[in-house]
Amino acid sequence: EVQLVESGGAVVQPGGSLRLSCVGSGFTFSRYTFNWVRQAPGQGLEWVANIHVSSTRRYYADSVKGRFTISRDNVDNSVFLQMNNLRDEDTAIYFCARASPPDGDYPPFRFWGQGTLVLVSS
Amino acid sequence: IVMTQSPLSLAVTPGEPASISCRSSQSLLHSNGNNYLDWYVQRPGQSPQLLIYLGSQRASGVPDRFSASGSGTDFTLKISRVEADDVGVYYCMQALLTLYTFGQGTRLEIK
Predict the structure, then answer these.
(1) Is residue A104 over pLDDT 90?
(2) A76 vs chain B: nearest CA distance in angstroms?
(3) Do A45 and B36 touch (CB under 8 A)?
(4) DSSP secondary structure string for all residues of A95-115
(5) Cα–Cα distance between A27 and A30 in angstroms, integer?
(6) pLDDT tens digit string along B19-75?
(7) How confident is the model at residue A90 (pLDDT cuts 50, 70, 90)?
(8) C-beta neighbour count of A75 within 10 angstroms
(9) DSSP letter at B29?
(10) Cβ(B8)–Cβ(B99) below 8 Å
(11) Quick one: pLDDT at residue A102?
């Protein structure tokens, strides 16, 4: 069974940093593309970033480019989102999502984690 | 690419059909003949779930009450007979460009 478990969400002050983690199990982690998708309170879904199998291909939404960095560790079956210079508008539940099939990137959000809450507040 | 859904909410009697429209600001038809349009549902308190990909292909485990159609810039999700478990917010999403974008969401309620 495919499982994605996010962690690292917390309350952080504006301008602060946070690192989110997502651990995958039930599949060969190194063969899949991963995404982060967020959802502000009471709002819709916004794609944030993705990282392909090789890690050389990474893409970011304009709203986070230059502030967020996505990375992965295929030994620990983990994908990370380093978030710097956080703003009020970054407050959201952050979901980790895995693409399908292996070695491909579409559909991009075949499996989802349960999400982790980031609250940016002074 | 801007995705626009309508209606933003609808209330449906169980057993009746429902339909949601999605329009993209540019064509989602790839040169390979596929439309890179997905539909997701987020049920209350849950993570989103993939329903439809490539415009009309049901994801595994999705009941055949759900169908989707369309090409280019205009797409439709249909539920043939709404059930209580279908309550949630439905999103269309373009995957033609890696900077994926979602529609605003359509909230489905049961009358």
Answers:
(1) no
(2) 24
(3) no
(4) EEEE-SSTT---STTSEE---
(5) 9
(6) 999 999 999 999 999 999 999 999 999 999 999 999 999 999 999 999 999 999 999
(7) very high
(8) 8
(9) B
(10) no
(11) 85
- Mark yes or no for CB contact B48/A112 under 8 Å: yes
Q: Which of A50, A107, A115 has the CB atom closest to B98's CB atom?
A: A50
Mean pLDDT across A103-108: 87
**CA B58, CA B1: separation in Å to the nearest integer?**
23
Query: What is the rounded distance in angstroms from the CA atom of residue A97 to the CA atom of residue A22?
Result: 9
Q: Is A83 exposed, middle or buried (0-12, 13-18, 19+ CB in 10 A)?
A: buried
At A39-89, the pLDDT tens digits run 999 999 999 999 999 888 999 999 999 999 999 999 999 999 999 999 999
- Strand-strand pairing, A116-120 and A11-12: parallel
The radius of gyration of chain A's CA atoms, rounded to the nearest angstrom, is 13
**Distance of alpha carbon A1 from alpha carbon B69, whole angstroms:** 30
Whether the CB of A24 is below 8 Å from some CB of chain B: the reply is no
Chain A residues within 8 A of B48 when measuring between CB atoms: 37, 45, 95, 109, 112
- Residue B7: partners with Cβ closer than 8 Å, 6 or more residues away: B20, B106
